[in-house]
Amino acid sequence: MSSKYEHFENKVEEQLRSTTDDHPLGEKGGWHASVADAHLANINEHETTVRKALRAYPYAAIWSVVVSMSIIMEGYDTSLVGNFYGYPEFAKQFGSYDKATDSYQVAGQWQQALGSSPTASALVSATLNGYLLQRFEFRSVFMGGLVCMNAFIFICFFGTTVELQIAGQFLCGPMAFRPYLTAYTNMRLAIGQFIIAGVLQSLLGRPDQWSYRIPYAIQWLWPAPLMVAAFFMPESPWWLVRHNRYEEAEHSGKRLMARAEKPNARKVVAMMIHTNMIEKEITAGHSYWDCFRGTDLRRTEIACVIFAGQVLAGTSFAFSGTYFFEQAGLNNDDAYKLGLGETAIAFVGTLISWVLMRIAGRRTIYLWGMAGMCACLIIIGFLTLAHGNAGIKWAQSVLCVIWLFFFSLSAGPIGWDIPAEVSSTRLRSKTICLARNSYYITQIVGNVVEPYMLNSIEWNWRGKTGFFWFGTAFLTFVWACFRLPETKGRTYEELDLMFAAKVPTRKFRKFQVDAYDENVNIIDRVKETQ
């Protein structure tokens, strides 16, 4: 603990010692906490660096790694079918012969259905998730999703018709637990995509149905060990606080802390209670409808557009670029090798984004990243107009890789980080469910139009598809300029107060917040610095 923190601790305790009994935050049975406890935890949070946080909360970091293994599974699953479109044995089994290209092609309508069915499933499950997490513990919902996922993989594995594949993909859509990790999620997605790219590359020369069945079977490696881990996982202290189970929240918090930090668990829970009380004062409800009322409407808008922006930036086109590489003119072997390298670039880009977020902030990185992706997309489109140059196919493919690097620096990790930060803790599960649903709806539209734009037996736009996604990415960039605030360095309490005070988007960095000034109204605790 730093000397600066100790100074503030002594000062706050001295100021509130005589009035602590008049400022109780939570009293249940023999459990008690005060505003002073919450204030001290808030000061400590501002003082804490990444290194200090890892020392204080090592088990929180470990459990985050364990739980986010499910995101590797999502990265694997969601990239699997999109990469199968150009896979020889899969196209032969579920497609038809195209004389013009002397190859088998999965028809556009079946690509639509295969790509959209898991997204449609996720749309339903994410909506249901908002209700489940309000009533049941996070751990129970997590384990239930894993059980269902394990069962539904059988349909994909044994399905020998395209209709059965669609049914399997619908039932194996991303389950309810997945949207709750932030920037770290993008790395786990990249790891999953790296694994599937390596698996597909190694099986590319296999001339039978096992070339696509083995990748399906590998999905069974994840659910069983994750269910065992989930059984021992501590429940979220935030969920317990919202259900007035303060003593259990403190016990759960201690399970996430180092031994030396455990005496501060009550202060941390007090800060959670204080945040929850502020949010109840700002908005009393916690239904889906409340996400569209008052100041929460703005927060929901930001979360939804940021998530949808991942698709609008061009993920349907460039994120899993193997099929585009083939349509651009690369052979199967080169396309899948480049796809493998692309996933490694995504991993590195996410690592760099962690450093950038500590230096530059969310808004700046997002804007520059979106601008870079816009540039890549429009250049890909214009290169298509240059006929007769054999190097164009490689230039377009490399630009897809550069696009993915920009995505992994910005919209990829930050697209998970910002929705978790801008939503209030009371409405977070529902706000993120709505935001993730905006992603799924946008992705369904992308999955409907993308196969027709790329497929050689449909519209055959090939690289001209870049023009379409440049338009959507540019509109997202313009929106972010005027509507995306900077959330770097703000606690949940401070963000609650800033949204309640309707701080202008471009002035978020210039406002100072005193969340613990109990003598003034909530919105008066936010002041612009000179």
From TrEMBL:
It holds the Pfam family Sugar_tr. Signal peptide: none annotated. It is found in: Membrane. Its main location: membrane. Keywords: Membrane, Sugar transport, Transmembrane, Transmembrane helix, Transport. It comes from the Eukaryota. GO terms for cellular component: membrane. Residues 1-24 are annotated as: Disordered. This is Sugar transporter, putative. It comes from Talaromyces stipitatus (strain ATCC 10500 / CBS 375.48 / QM 6759 / NRRL 1006) (Penicillium stipitatum). The lineage of its organism: Eukaryota, Fungi, Dikarya, Ascomycota, Pezizomycotina.
